[in-house]
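Materials and Methods. Structural model of Phosphatidylglycerol/phosphatidylinositol transfer protein. The 175-residue sequence of Phosphatidylglycerol/phosphatidylinositol transfer protein from Aspergillus viridinutans was retrieved and submitted for structure prediction as follows.
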Amino acid sequence: MKLLSTAATLLVCLAPLSASARSISFFDSAQAPIKAESFPVKGDNPLEYCSDPSGNILEIESVDLFPNPPLPGQTLTINAKGNLKDRVEEGAYVALEVKYGLITLIKQTADLCEQIKNVDLECPLEKGDMTLTKQVDLPSHIPPGRYNVHADVYTKDGKKITCLDAHNIEFKIRQ
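The predicted structure was written out as tokens:
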């Protein structure tokens, strides 16, 4: 109860400041809007690179998802093409974070070579062109809402293979 009354007091004290702050202009009207740079992954997908991918070991040409957006209880087909600039050996890892809204569901580091067995690949991954087609049966009971995924992928020596984000992947209640 003390926390609620403290929060209420804080809001009452700050309300006049926020009302008056709206009328104060700190920036010239010609101020450029703040824009985040985005680096989308080509294809029909919600993916984007975390930063400029030019130095990454994996050069992704395209990723296509069908259906996009994915639907609970249906098969998701993933088609991806890319090029590895260097060989990827045992010891490579992925740092994965999955959030449901603001709630972190998964935050773990996993062995990349173990994970890629799920898509019928194995280490070492040789330098050169790669093509991947995988079908994934999605469970029919995925809680509705927005999900965000972040994956950092590194070699055993800490060189960046890739870094990907998928924002606002939304699952809706089936009707």
